[in-house]
Amino acid sequence: MKELIIAALEKSISSLNIDYHDQLEITRPKQKENGDCSCNIALRLASIVHDNPMLIAEKLVANFSCPEVKNVEIKAPGFINFFVAKDYLLENLKKVLIEKENYGRSNIGAGQKINIEFVSANPTGILHIGNARGGAYGDSLARIMRFCGYDVTSEYYINDAGNQINNLGESIKARYYEICGQDYHMPENGYYGEEIKAIAKELYDNYQDTYLDKDLEFYKELGTKKLLNNIFTDLKEYGINYDCYTSEKAISQKYDLKEIINKLTTHGYTYELDGATWFKCSALYDDKDHVLIKEDGTLTYLVPDIAYHYDKYNRGYDKMIDIFGTDHHGYVARLKSSIKALGNDPDKLEVKLLQLVRLIKDGNVVKMSKRSGKSVTLKELIDEVGVNAARYYFARYSLDTQMDFDLDLAKSKSNENPVYYVSYAYARISSILREKDITEIPEKFATLNNEDTYNVLEKVYAFPEVVKTAALKELPHLITNYVYELAGLFHSYYAKNRILTENEIATKENILLIKAIRQTIYNALNLIGVIPPEKM
RNA sequence: GUCCUCGUAGCUCAGCUGGAUAGAGCAUACGCCUUCUAAGCGUACGGUCAAGCGUUCGAAUCGCUUCGAGGACACCA
Asked: Which of A140, A183, A337, A505 could form a disulfide with A284 if both were Cys (CB 3.0 to 4.6 A apart)?
């Protein structure tokens, strides 16, 4: 529809001998009286041809011809508004019914290889509510982009080496010794979570105190294994399955990390100072240099991370998206610097920072701390509110809002959570379809011609466009906004119109209409990992 | 102190590559169940888009300044 109007307008513009080659903007006005489509081109042209926008609009309209457009109006200060025949909505209805779960699918991604890395929490604890947000965003984005024809790899980076894993091993050892009645101190940056105690207890339950002579390596491996298992079990329940897992250990085996540093040196990006080797990232994007090899000869966390991203580049993605908490934002400049220093294009990496989730309990902000184990876990969240509500809740918000998560509200399963509103629309339709279902699609629809029907059909029609925008702008919350509005239009339609009537043709067509609505709701929710219920 | 992100209705948030009268939900008030699910529908109330200046036909949207919130500034990861 848009395309037809644009083409006709372009003809009109060139017939006036105006030189204008930018993309014409056709928008959908908020007010219905301003038409189905609107164009601001006369306002744009005003400054180019130095004329009154109203007059330009009149000239454009005089030369405008497009059979699908029933009526054209000009409104101050110079908008051209188009009123369109509704047939395309009914054609689109057929399309939904034929394409079913593929309605909204496109190929704007054209097979571009995209890597999306998200959550990637260290295996030193249980996933918490912040991970739930990153997970919901990352997984939804992956689904949306796949739906739009991108070749997406979703990835989890496992930090299974380094200092924090030593601390993990020490922490488990300390807890185990404690249970065995032995004296052992928690390390300085020890982990105090219940899950650490649980691992120690399980060890004791199985082997009593016979493992007291095990070395640190044993506890590290045990802890990493157990905690990763927890993490991926939780994520799976949350609806997230990864295409690819990469571990820090594996990267260290695949690459000689000293070699990576040598590469940086060859390109002139390292220097020695105070017995340490530094990365000269201030010469690139960072405002400070950072240490790569410490005075004691060990590597900092930065080195394996540089190697990891080097590896991602070697895998040949067109674009890589990393999703981090905002507390890692300082890290971005370092990473991009390393990419550039190793001769790769830093623009291929896009880092999304999500604002941390503030937890509200009893009306007060709860300070979250992983080390002390004080936070709400993903598992608890799922158990309290269910996967659908949790996924929807997080998908609703754009990443850069400092959102509050009110635990009590979430637990209450109140209407505050719009997933119920959308699910309810789906369940209502399902209920009617259990009464009567139709599969054959007529050549022409004869009875779908009232205002409520057009309203909801217009929304259905908009779906593919919304999905594309969500993919291009990488904004999954556009999908939740959309599906909420669609559900609203259905509820409103439902309240005023009967589906099952005396009239057989009308009934059949009504059923096909709500079936298409249900399909669209399903497709939209599927993109954010929500499976709507047949009954409520 | 330097650097990021943010500030929209009482609350939680949309709207941001500039467009027409700034939108939802919750809360509040009032209507609507003899017919397909009332977890619903409808009406009302609610705004100095943090503040100021600028850019222009036009600014919540772009730029600068101020104020406020959160975060980052390790030879930790």
From this structure: A337
